[in-house]
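Objective 1b. Sequence-to-structure analysis of E2 ubiquitin-conjugating enzyme.
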Amino acid sequence: MEVALTLKRVEERCEREEQQSRIAKQEGMTKSKKVTARMSTPARKRLMRDFKRLQQDPPAGISGAPHDNNIMFWNAVIFGPDDTPWDGGTFKLTLQFTEDYPNKPPTVRFVSRMFHPNIYADGSICLDILQNQWSPIYDVAAVLTSIQSLLCDPNPNSPANSEAARMFSENKREYNRKLRSGKSNRISRYRIHPDEIVLFTSWLVIGYWLNDMPNRANSNG
């Protein structure tokens, strides 16, 4: 009788442990699916492609990468074009994306203090492709190169900084002198730290691998 009771208890314990194991496994799979789903939204997939393109074929004078493991927030730098008043300057920006990207533009701000007709005091940029002229065909590289072009080709008729717009229109020589001597616009040259790119690239590869697991399973099955 005692032996039968002990066996029953062992069976019940094994059954409980097996049930707990199944629950834990299901919860783990659910979490994995949620992580994969978050990484595989249309916006994040597009940003992964943007980042890959930016690393494989970077336009001259710009650099950018997602911040840590958050692909929706980027740090970027624009180098002042050679032989212009901006030459020698390196200017920091941030880009904040939403899940509506690329149907809606990112929010882009200069972190560096800027003196420019189309840049507000808070670093916001008055640029048509970031507003009513946005198109889903634009990617991160296109956004950064457009901003780089805006530095040398401002639109004083749509001023965000009235003083800079007035000086550019009425006394371009003084405007250029202010840019060249404006230490607030100039910081030491640097690029996104290689370790940041390596860390993010590793995360990127893992993301692609997780998303491609069902295809791998089907091809092997």
